């Protein structure tokens, strides 16, 4: 399988986009997840039954909160609410600058239409925190506000207000979010979301996927195993979505605390991928990609016999790519130095047969004439 990450079908994947945005949002900011889940439930009540216009609005809500959470993660959980409908004294404006930066990044990413992104950037969401001073007034406001004109308001407003009040008063729906009918679309969308947060991490994941696919061609894997490997490799660092930008791009050495925080990305990635039904094996590979054969890895310190072949392939491809490309804290190493490290310092940590196969691939790649030759 080769993931085509330069194009994404716009129609027919709206439900998948909403669900995946919400799945990631739940990991990044439970508070924002709660707000968005209630806002989506309100839209469905306003619409009477899900239709295209209400689902467009729900995509806007989901994307708005995701962009805000990715851009301003350190502050978003402190924000009690952002308000369009609340009274002026209750309104807490979003830090627009961060949100606009994230929205501008999103505009270069095809999974979301430009109308949805622009609307998501401009949306000031419904305040739904428990701190809202007058929740009944808010429910009435939503039920009668002109901004909802495009939604069919066939409900009597008193009945609608009571339904909205019930949604605002109840905990958000946190059932497993499915991917619709196309798990690969969910995988690609997750990769796009990672690219919004950290472009260099997303590109690293693409390169690791290509290396893993080249290794799988040598290893005699089945088609199903190759598909699993491709999905896991593309998402192996998706847990970094939840880490602060400053940590991901730090040029100097990490402190002990920073290293510990960085290490959380393996478990977080496992949790995010697990949200997509049918991708349990991929989720486990994502969660184990920093385990090492000598037990020195994380998060569990597993030994080689507990690390499956597909994970060992991703790990070797990951380490090779990390060392052979520049990072904020060091320059890229030439292949000779990289393989020297893999075969000496890291010899007990990596599967030596996979390292040998990778070396063959790299050597033959360099020997092959390029298109410009
Ligand atoms: Fe990683």
TrEMBL record:
Residues 179-373 form the HD-GYP domain. InterPro entries: Cyclic_di-GMP/3'3'-cGAMP_PDE (IPR052020), HD/PDEase_dom (IPR003607), HD_GYP_dom (IPR037522). GO terms for molecular function: phosphoric diester hydrolase activity. CDD domains: HDc. PROSITE patterns: HD_GYP. Transmembrane segments: none annotated. This is HD domain-containing protein. It comes from Algicella marina.
